[in-house]
């Protein structure tokens, strides 16, 4: 597991969303307040051929992109990192029950399949920054 810092431009260019957005003004304001207090957890990413797939933290990345923030992110590098991320994110964690046997390559494959569906969402459409 390693920490990296990404600006909003890098997030927009290199990070692929892996879940649909279910955003609200209240959720966005809560995340902004956490960011301002330095309490926003870093999103968990998995590197895949120069891109990053979001393991946990789609809305944190959305917020950083649309509010032009630079954030720290955690890059997961092994199945042990994935399991540690699950502990830190609970109870809002990603469901791993369909990945059998649970391997790091299996996690990457599941994220790639999810990114194929949700990866091209435009964060600006789901933002409440203009409210």
Description:
By secondary structure, the protein is α/β, with parallel strands linked by helices. The chain has helices at residues 8-14, 25-37, 58-66, 79-89, 104-118, and strands spanning 2-6, 15-16, 44-48, 51-56, 71-76. It has a five-stranded mixed β-sheet with strand order 1-5-3-4-2. The longest helix is centred in the C-terminal third of the chain and has 15 residues, at 104-118. It is globular and about 45 Å long.
Terminal Cα separation, in Å? 37 Å
- What is the mean predicted local confidence, pLDDT? 92
Proportion of helical residues: 40-55%
Largest sheet strand order: 1-5-3-4-2
**Could you say which overall geometry the principal axes of the C-alpha atoms support?**
globular
Characteristic key phrases:
5 strands; 18% strand; five-stranded mixed β-sheet; 42% helix; 5 helices; 131 residues; alpha/beta
List the helices and strands and how they pair.
Layout: E1 2-6, H1 8-14, E2 15-16, H2 25-37, E3 44-48, E4 51-56, H3 58-66, E5 71-76, H4 79-89, H5 104-118
Parallel strand pairs: 2-4, 3-5
Antiparallel strand pairs: 1-5, 3-4
Helix pairs in contact: 1-3
